[in-house]
Amino acid sequence: MRKKRVLLLSEGFGSGHTQAAYALAFGLRELDPGIQTRVIELGKFLNPVLGPMIVNAYRKTVVKQPKLVGIVYRRQYKKSLNRLTQLALHRIFYTHTSQVINQLKPDLIVCTHPVPNAVVSRLKRLGLDVPLYTLITDYDAHGTWTSTEVTKYLVSTPLVMQKLIDRGIPRQRIEVTGIPVHPNFWHTYDKAEIHSQFGLKDMPTVLIMGGGWGILNSDDLLAHMTEYRDRVQLIYCVGNNEEARDRLLADPRFQHPNVKVLGFTREVSKLMDVSDLLVTKPGGMTCTEGLSKGIPMLFYEPIPGQEEENCEYFVNNGFGEMLESTDTIEKWFHLIQEPYAAVQYRRKLLSKRNQQYNPTQCSRAVLQFMQ
After folding, report:
1. What are phi and psi of 224, to 5 degrees?
2. Where is the Diacylglycerol glucosyltransferase N-terminal domain (predicted)?
């Protein structure tokens, strides 16, 4: 008997979209090992030279002109990608998408980025007979995600569902599933083993993330955090940004046994387990990973648009706070040094998480369709 196949299409405009696709793929296989999954960043796959160039140009725009990104986001907020735009995308960048789909023969397509979602929607209008699920990977519903050809929307919260309903999407085509995270974030790891693996101490710990795109630039706040290095362990994750890593390592303030500067790592789930506080950009995926671990979060420099919406959701629901000044650092760094207060706060967040989020729900929603 032929195994069921799920094709997950994403794009590399920020790592969260593709991470969500892989997380859903892992979750599906963990629930049903008989399902075959394939994750593709479509633009890069079809255009291995041009695709990364476009992503790099977008990254530079985000870093150097974030206000422009916000203006474009809001200007197009209520608009779906029109048919002329979809046609242009298909002919210029995605000409061979139908060939890929015909070759892989999926029983279901899941898109975790608006662009492949629009491309597949156009193919469905032209006769493609494969169900299309759209997984919205933020805590907002921008118009570019929407299309009449979508079979079902998988969304993060009831608020996002209501935004889609307000745009005329039928309620029965929307399911609140939360954003999937990798199964690594479903588990709790042994802290002693993690301390040994990374050379960490058993002491109050802060995990700082977000330098992969060169946007960990709040030097004054970073410097202020190092003033606690005798009492608080600091772990800086800068991803593949070697320039940022070299800059931090060369700074005497970061040359301390209680300060770790890490490059790219696949062990973020473990680092969250031994951390008492997460300082991060409010990307939809990172926030959901923090939510799954029940770790309090401080958000800095949200990109205008979806990151602002993500930040608003998590702050309003008590999972985090904006990092606006050194006073915020003082407050939280003192809290995590009080063992009882830190443990009680974490328990409160885990209880709230259990009420609002089930890490397997998105995978189960897709699996239910496959059966």
Report:
1. -65, -35
2. 17-181
